[in-house]
Specification:
The protein is of the alpha+beta class. The chain has 21 helices and eight strands.
Length: 473
């Protein structure tokens, strides 16, 4: 039988080559990139721990079949599980993403680069329990590169406009960097990433009415685990497909991207990590973060006059108007946390927005839908322009409320959420408070104190297994 790998192949697509070369570059990143990456790691762990409070998440965790655990497997934070790296990646990836509270990247495509920690953190832990002393610095190196690959691909290329979900970029980024962590050479990284593109992409069906559902909370776990699997296969010299993107008729561009090649107008560096958006104050789809902040500002002025409200005008960006302007029934928490009207109504009524506010007990309060029915969502062209401006990356929203007696509130506009780079000094202490609250809510005092003590030192030299042991049950 002939070996297909021995056949003469065309040169690899430039995108595949660029990704592989970047993964293999020496990691000489800025202090700011490393500092931010460490905050991203801690925030991801905190989000994962918080997700364990929700049975819909915890029910999906553990080995793929009962009993299939490993004594030297990767540990899953907050649980007793030790798993092989592919299923471990799914577990942690689903936990990180479950509550829509992890960091975010907004451009032509949207996404959550910390989804890659599902694969990278557990793979590093697995390797460090099996003969390799992988350090936290090495984990952060791979995370910076995964963020950059996912984020730069998202800058000019809108997968959502052709119906594909953004988790495709998690799969690409995890595949590339996981192969690098495993010691893959240039050809092996190209082979792995080519297979990741050939997988195609998940449809966005589960993010939109009438099909919005919990898959949107585990889709990233699925993507990052697939990345680990493809990386492991590449290390066994499984063949790749050099023109996976550009092949006429059968390549990714022709089949799934309207025949258009990707636009990549900047080289891979540390731009994405240094400009990442943290979700600090609210577990809410990021296009609505500033709308929630504006609603909280208005809460004291309207909470006693809800019955007298005639209309509520919400100005948002084009992307926000397109994906989270949602009227009609909202069937579950996954539906509600992607509805800007719902995310504005809750803080207007209660003066807060927390993960539990998406559950039925709160959603069935008749005041919520009463307010939603009075809301008008309109695109503000200036917000849309600033959203796409690489020097701003604003996510503006404005709210104004009009009463039946002819009076109205001040128009409250917020351009940058607290998790934006331009509000780092204000945001980081609150981000660490968010992390500490999630640790405190999950662990007993002795373990909490041990975690806090370690956090006060230099994390980068730590071996990943020792770090993961802090958070495992």
């Amino acid at each position: 039988m002939s070996d297909y790998r021995s056949a003469k192949r065309p040169p690899a697509d430039t995108v595949l080559q660029n990704i592989a070369d970047y993964v293999l570059e020496p990691s000489t990143f800025s202090d700011n990139a490393y500092r931010t990456a460490q905050f991203c790691l801690l925030d991801s762990i905190g989000c994962a721990l918080q997700a364990l409070r929700f049975p819909a998440c915890s029910n999906l965790l553990g080995p793929i079949v009962p009993g299939a655990e490993l004594a030297n497997g990767a540990k899953i934070p907050g649980t007793p599980y030790q798993l092989e790296p592919v299923q471990a990646a799914f577990n942690l990836g689903a936990m990180i993403r479950w509550l829509d509270y992890n960091d975010t990247w907004l451009a032509a495509e949207w996404g959550h680069p910390s989804d890659n920690f599902g694969g990278l953190f557990t793979l590093c832990d697995y390797l460090s329990r099996n003969g390799q002393d992988i350090s936290i610095k090495q984990l952060l190196d791979s995370a910076i590169k995964a963020y950059e690959i996912q984020g730069v691909l998202a800058l000019e290329n809108s997968f959502n406009r052709v119906g594909l979900d953004h988790v495709i970029l998690v799969r690409i980024a995890t595949t590339a960097t996981a192969t690098g962590l495993l010691g893959g050479n240039r050809d092996q990284i190209i082979n792995a990433v080519s297979n990741a593109w050939i997988d195609g992409g998940a449809l966005r069906t589960y993010r939109h009415a009438p099909n919005t559902g919990s898959r949107k909370s585990w889709a990233a776990g699925d993507a990052t685990s697939r990345g680990v699997r493809l990386a492991l296969m590449a290390m066994k010299d499984e063949m790749g497909y050099p023109s996976a993107l550009s092949a006429t008729q059968w390549g990714f561009y022709d089949v799934l991207f309207d025949g258009k090649p990707f636009e990549l107008n900047q080289t891979f560096s540390t731009y994405v990590m240094e400009n990442i958006l943290f979700k600090i104050s609210f577990p809410a789809e990021f296009h609505a973060q500033t709308a929630v902040e504006a609603a909280l500002t208005l809460h004291p002025h309207v909470s006693e006059k809800l019955d007298n409200i005639e209309k509520i005008v919400i100005e948002t960006q084009e992307a926000g108007a397109r994906i989270i302007d949602k009227t009609g029934p909202l069937n579950n928490p996954a539906d509600r946390d992607h509805c800007i009207q719902y995310m504005v109504a809750i803080p207007l009524i209660f003066g807060r927005l927390i993960a539990e506010d998406y559950e039925d007990e709160i959603a069935f309060d008749p005041r919520v839908d009463n307010l939603r029915n009075k809301m008008q969502v309109v695109e503000n062209k200036a917000f849309s322009k600033d959203y796409l401006d690489p020097s701003k990356r604003a996510i503006g929203n404005a709210i104004q409320i009009f009463f039946s007696d002819g009076s109205k509130t001040e128009r409250i506009e917020v351009s940058y959420p607290i998790g934006h780079r331009c509000r780092r000094d204000e945001g980081i202490p609150l981000l660490m408070k968010k992390f500490q609250n999630n640790v405190d809510n999950h662990f007993k005092k002795e373990k909490r104190d041990n975690i806090k003590k370690v956090m006060e030192g230099d994390l980068q030299p730590m071996i990943v297994r020792e770090f993961m042991d802090l958070f495992a049950e």
